[in-house]
Specification:
Blueprint: H1 2-26, E1 29-36, H2 59-64, H3 69-72, E2 74-83, H4 90-104, E3 111-115, H5 121-131, E4 138-141, H6 154-165, E5 176-179, E6 182-185, E7 190-191, E8 200-201, E9 209-212, E10 215-218, E11 243-247, H7 255-262, E12 267-272, H8 283-291, E13 295-300, H9 315-318, E14 321-322, H10 328-339, H11 345-354
Parallel strand pairs: 1-2, 1-3, 3-4, 4-5, 11-12, 12-13, 13-14
Antiparallel strand pairs: 5-6, 6-9, 7-8, 9-10
Helix pairs in contact: 5-10
This protein binds succinic acid (SIN).
Succinic acid (SIN) binds at residues 36-38, 54, 84-86, 117-119, 142, 144.
């Protein structure tokens, strides 16, 4: 009698273990790479939603705060670095991109989530979009409220990001940014509000989709080259060419531009007014810089729309490049990568039409 009872208990335990193993095997394997930001931030009180400290809590604490993750993926965490994203730089990008490519080349990794500060999330996302060598999902996520705040948005954003990174729907879509239940493409997304939860938008072109009821819904995708179609490769790189941004405004002067060129800039993004227009006080310095071999890209401070080639400037004659719809901070990234391949402005213009 006792032996029979013992046997049935062992059988139950065995079945339970088998069920747990079967569930784990059917779930995608998602690695979370933590880099800091508000999602890992802490404030003095639960109502502190500004004036908190970003990048305080580690990846294991982020994962432990969302036990629901275990239901949608087999999750592993790695702390790649721990910074507020205003301190993001080219070296961090190269380190992160190499780690992402290594992990995605492994058969036991199905997708990657990167936790990141929101201030430069759009730049990191676009950089990775251009250099990741895989169709597997890469999802970047942040939060607008620190982890200690009432209604912190980090946990639900992280849950959505893991869900997305483990989904079939996200395969081949390029690097994605998700916050606030919305999915955006790396090339197009931008931060539009200093502090609200719905800050991330793709102005005019719109979101790729939403996450609702633990399921991603896609409605469109970016038409530009990314990830496996991209020619850019950071595997052998330990630095990127210096490219700086000058911002257009009334009464503009060329002091900053000249300083960048004197400091060795290989490229300048000019975020001009309107359709990338150039102030008369700055044009001679741009022409001089181009003569010295500096590549000049005309972008716009407006944030939406195409900068027309040969529109507000004679780009053919000046030998300038236009940024298409890329904002200045993303044009900087594409130009840095383009300069790792060529200094030919015709080739670089082609790159700006394609990526
Ligand atoms: C940061 O970008 O690291 C701080 C701001 C944020 O994450 O929202």
């Amino acid at each position: 009698m006792l032996a029979r009872k013992l046997f049935s208990q062992i059988l139950i335990l065995f079945c339970l273990a088998a069920a747990i193993t079967a569930q784990a095997q059917s779930l995608p394997n998602v690695t979370i790479l933590a880099t800091g930001g508000t999602i890992a931030g802490t404030g003095a009180t639960s109502t502190t939603t500004v004036g908190y400290t970003a990048a305080k809590i580690g990846v294991e604490a982020l994962i432990d705060a969302v036990p629901e993750l275990k239901k949608v993926a087999n999750v592993k965490g790695e702390q790649v670095f721990q910074i507020a994203s205003e301190n993001m730089n080219n070296e961090y990008w190269l380190k992160l991109a190499k780690r992402v490519n290594t992990l995605l080349s492994q058969s036991d990794v199905d997708g990657i989530v990167i936790t990141h500060g929101t201030d430069t999330i759009e730049e990191t996302a676009y950089f990775l979009d251009l250099v990741v060598k895989s169709r597997k999902p890469v999802v970047i996520v942040g939060a607008m409220r620190p982890s200690t705040a009432i209604s912190a948005d980090g946990p639900i954003n992280l849950y959505n990001a893991v869900l997305l990174a483990g989904s079939k729907e996200a395969v081949g879509k390029g690097v994605l940014v998700t916050l606030n239940d919305q999915i955006n493409a790396a090339r197009e997304v931008t931060k539009t509000n200093t502090s609200t939860l719905d800050t991330f938008k793709t102005p005019e072109l719109g979101y790729l989709g939403y996450i609702q009821g633990s399921k991603p819904f896609f409605y469109r995708q970016s038409t530009r080259k990314h990830t496996v179609e991209s020619q850019f490769d950071v595997s052998g790189l330990d630095q990127l060419p210096q490219v700086d941004i000058v911002y257009g405004y009334a009464n503009m002067n060329p002091i900053a531009l000249n300083a960048f060129v004197a400091a060795g800039a290989k490229g300048i993004i000019h975020a001009g007014v309107g359709d990338g227009s150039l102030n008369n006080t700055v044009l001679p310095s741009l022409v001089e810089a181009r003569k010295k071999g500096v590549v000049i890209v005309r972008s716009s401070r407006v944030g939406q729309g195409i900068v027309a080639r040969n529109g507000e400037a004679d780009d053919d004659k000046l030998d300038f490049v236009v940024s298409d719809t890329l904002n200045a901070q993303k044009a900087r990234i594409l130009l840095m990568l383009a300069l790792t391949k060529t200094t030919d402005t015709k080739e670089i213009q082609k790159i700006f039409w394609e990526y």
